[in-house]
Amino acid sequence: MRQCILPEEHFFDIFGYPESVAHIKEHKDFEKKITAFGADFKTGKQRLSKDIIKFLSDWLVAHIKGSDKKYGPFLNERGVK
Ligand SMILES: [Fe+2]
Question: 44 CA to middle of ligand 1, Å?
Answer without folding.
Answer: 30
